Amino acid sequence: xxxxxxxxxxxxxxxxxxxxxxxxxxxxxxxxxxxxxxxxxxxxxxxxxxxxxxxxxxxxxxxxxxxxxxxxxxxxxxxxxxxxxxxxxxxxxxxxxxxxxxxxxxxxxxxxxxxxxxxxxxxxxxxxxxxxxxxxxxxxxxxxxxxxxxxxxxxxxxxxxxxxxxxxxxxxxxxxxxxxxxxxxxxxxxxxxxxxxxxxxxxxxxxxxxxxxxxxxxxxxxxxx
Length: 225
Prior knowledge:
CATH class: Alpha Beta
Number of helices: 7
CATH architecture: 3-Layer(aba) Sandwich
Helix content: 25-40%
Number of domains: 1
Pfam family, one: QueC
Strand content: 5-15%
Shape: globular
Protein name: 7-cyano-7-deazaguanine synthase
Enzyme class: ligase
Keywords: ATP-binding, Ligase, Metal-binding, Nucleotide-binding, Queuosine biosynthesis, Zinc
Largest sheet: 5 strands, parallel
Radius of gyration: 17 Å
Distance between the termini: 51 Å
Strand order of the largest sheet: 3-2-1-4-5
EC number: 6.3.4.20
CATH superfamily: HUPs
Order of helices and strands: EHEHEHEHHEHH
Structural class: alpha/beta
């Protein structure tokens, strides 16, 4: 019998790869996406496509309104999404986003009696986000095993980050071998409603660079100038 896992699925390149990896490892996958007030809501349509094509047992979208607190170019339309190349923690960082997402994934995992959660965070091409680092994941896993009935009863909750030490080109190569259709994914921070990418933001830059370095044709649909 397959093990159950909750997989955080944004609809982007990284999370699609992680879902494929979890399926390849014989997990019964429950894909979880969030409608959190992000400007690039086309990623939710992409997430549904990816979940279906990669055989998720269930796909769920949780509605949150992080735009009500703002603080990020992804949730506040008054803050412009910058072009690639800025240093430090970028304005596209959404305050405490991965902490919130993992907490809800943890709750669903308990309900499903799943001991495993997969998330596509990456410390190589991580764009300066503090909640994509190994130290954060380690701390959250410790918290998960203190804060839950499952943890107290000794089941042990595990946070899997199979992309943590991979470059974007490595991720593209892994996903390609696993049959991920990257044309279904949306990574752009300001993709339009049709899922067309801007080609200028940090996420677009890293994605395009990943395909180029992997020697794989980039299937991304870019907006016309």
